[in-house]
Design the sequence.
């Protein structure tokens, strides 16, 4: 998704803007731009298609500096990726804006502006906002008031940063539906889509609320809430370090994040499990009472986070014996669900800003659920702030578009939720101790699984030229197969599908031939024998099998069957997290062999803040 950076200071802010954009690259984008007020008070704008590096090169060619400016990375929604559609967009009299989100009523506003004599140079909804601000400023005389008048007319989602030649001492911001954060400095202030962009210049942040309009000057921040009242927004200190979002010695963020998983999972458990017990206050002060009353669970999420929820359904039903439904947010939000009494509504999200998940939460809050719980990786995110209960995954910043450590920490957090629910629904202290112990062992099992990397790297050579792949699993391993297929298609662009292995003979078996690798996750559980029969069906049709199997599965490599032996003693409650690791590594190495952009795969964005 698009990224915003802005700065006002007593020094040249262009390097800060460029570094900020570079740190937002992980969000996904197709073009970049910057607008700076130069020393003679004129707006200078540069825009380029492609990577931030291109913009940086353009700045070297056309030296640009100043003490006030805004910058942007654009992920195309309205209009193709091109220089003229890239932000900042400008209107008359030196007004420049950058915008994240989508304006739904842009066409009618555009028509009105055209009849007022404004000419458009792009196909974007953003340019409409720039001209609207100019239009209002003519009447109201002040840029802050003009922005407030403009946002009152907008339908849709936006985070905006606006500068104007005649107000060289401030940047105006507005937020509705898209995150924006103010970085507080010493006699200088900043703005960005998320804190990671500003970590080299500050650790202090102000998070705007929905409907806020703010102006930042060098020494001052003023915020008005949606009703136009002066609002006090707390300054918070971020615990993240500036190098948390660096690759270090790894060639890609994805590989770094795969190898960070033992630590990330251990951190997610820290201080939350102790002495064989789960400390359920970790979910919030009301958690005990809410879990006691919970009679059913509805989980809503997107993509990888949805797969974590789909695994949790098995655990919640088998271990806590509560009914559980899981749905992708973009579908859930357009249903009119019947909500059974005392149902807990759970959202799962790495970013906490996914538009569909957030909309589903807002809808759920009006639909009679018992309470809402968010499992999320970003403490300051909208989802966290709007949920009654929260359990933060402590994965640290995940920069690779492909979710890896966010997924296994979500599974861990969901494991804690299962224990909490089970405690109130029949599990005794011994059962709790056993489950907690299983959770504590996960980091060590992941560590051992990571030792398979050289084997998997070799294996990837047999996939790299394939056009299709099938992933199979049964029970809670079906969502893990789905996650494996998503990873492979997302970063290597190999078409991959996942099936519950028992479903194969109802159609997909027709696809199986020697050219279709079939990748299977086979822990030692009560479905193993059934799974083996399904694999026979594949082998009998000449399908090439690659099975990640428990050492006690009794399976051995043979003609057309490659067994990759996983660590010993992986229990039912641990298998989802542990067996997802080799699938992440397989996708990564296939993508490397195919030469794709692993961390920023084509067409995708890290944080999907549009519907
Ligand atoms: O931030 P979220 O977890 O809400 O994002 C949801 C999906 O967009 C995300 O999980 C996506 O599927 C992954 N990048 C895939 O690896």
Sequence:
């Amino acid at each position: 998704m698009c990224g915003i950076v802005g700065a006002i200071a007593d020094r040249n802010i262009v390097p800060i803007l460029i570094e900020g954009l570079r740190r937002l690259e992980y969000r996904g984008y197709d073009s970049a731009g910057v607008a700076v007020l130069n020393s003679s008070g004129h707006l200078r704008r540069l825009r380029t298609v492609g990577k931030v590096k291109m913009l940086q090169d353009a700045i070297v060619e056309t030296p640009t500096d100043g003490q006030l400016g805004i910058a942007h990375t654009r992920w195309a929604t309205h209009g193709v990726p091109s220089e003229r559609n890239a932000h900042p967009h400008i209107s008359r009299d030196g007004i420049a804006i950058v915008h994240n989100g989508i304006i739904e009523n842009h066409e009618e506003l555009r028509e009105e502006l055209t009849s007022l004599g404004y000419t458009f140079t792009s196909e974007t909804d953003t340019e409409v906002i720039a001209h609207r601000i100019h239009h209002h400023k003519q009447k109201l005389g002040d840029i802050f008031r003009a922005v407030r008048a403009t946002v009152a007319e907008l339908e849709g989602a936006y985070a905006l940063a606006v500068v104007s030649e005649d107000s060289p001492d401030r940047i105006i911001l507005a937020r509705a539906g898209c995150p924006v954060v103010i970085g507080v400095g010493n006699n200088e202030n900043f703005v960005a889509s998320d804190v990671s962009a500003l970590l080299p210049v500050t650790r202090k942040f102000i998070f705007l609320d929905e409907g806020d309009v703010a102006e930042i000057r060098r020494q001052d921040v003023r915020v008005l809430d949606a009703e136009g009242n002066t609002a006090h927004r707390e300054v918070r200190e971020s615990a993240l370090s500036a190098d948390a979002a660096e690759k270090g010695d790894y060639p890609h963020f994805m590989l770094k994040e795969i190898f960070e998983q033992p630590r990330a999972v251990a951190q997610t458990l820290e201080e939350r499990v102790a002495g064989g017990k789960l400390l359920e206050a970790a979910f919030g002060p009301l958690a005990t009472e809410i879990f006691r009353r919970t009679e059913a669970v509805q989980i809503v999420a997107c993509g990888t986070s949805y797969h974590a929820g789909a695994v949790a359904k098995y655990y919640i039903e088998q271990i806590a014996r509560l009914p559980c439904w899981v749905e992708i947010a973009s579908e859930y939000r357009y249903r009119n669900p019947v909500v059974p009494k005392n149902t807990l509504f759970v959202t799962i999200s790495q970013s906490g800003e996914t538009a569909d998940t957030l909309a589903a939460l807002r809808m759920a809050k009006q639909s009679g659920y018992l309470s809402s719980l968010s499992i999320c990786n970003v403490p300051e995110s909208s989802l966290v702030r709007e949920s009654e209960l929260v359990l933060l995954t402590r994965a640290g910043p995940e920069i690779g578009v492909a979710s890896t450590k966010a997924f296994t920490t979500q599974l861990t957090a969901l494991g804690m939720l299962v224990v909490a629910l089970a405690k109130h629904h029949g599990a005794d202290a011994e059962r709790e101790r056993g489950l907690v112990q299983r959770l504590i062992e996960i980091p060590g099992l992941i560590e051992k699984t990571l030792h398979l990397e050289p084997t998997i790297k070799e294996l990837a050579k047999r996939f790299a030229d394939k056009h299709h792949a099938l992933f199979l699993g049964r029970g809670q391993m079906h969502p893990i197969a789905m996650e494996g297929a998503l990873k492979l298609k997302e970063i290597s662009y190999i078409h991959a599908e996942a099936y519950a292995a028992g479903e194969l003979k109802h159609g997909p078996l027709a696809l199986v031939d020697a050219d279709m690798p079939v990748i299977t996750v086979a822990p030692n559980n009560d479905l193993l024998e059934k799974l083996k029969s399904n694999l026979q069906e594949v082998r009998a049709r000449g399908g090439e099998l690659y099975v990640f199997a428990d050492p006690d599965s009794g399976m051995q490599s043979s003609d057309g069957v490659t067994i990759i032996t996983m660590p010993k003693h992986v229990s039912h409650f641990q298998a989802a997290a542990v067996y997802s690791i080799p699938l992440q590594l397989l996708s990564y190495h296939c993508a490397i062999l195919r030469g794709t952009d692993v961390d920023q795969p084509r067409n995708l964005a890290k944080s999907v803040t549009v519907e």
User: Anything to note?
Assistant: The mean pLDDT is 92. The pocket of 5-amino-5-deoxy-1-O-phosphono-D-mannitol is lined by residues 302-305, 349-351, 354, 357, 401-403, 486, 490, 607-608 (CB under 6 Å).
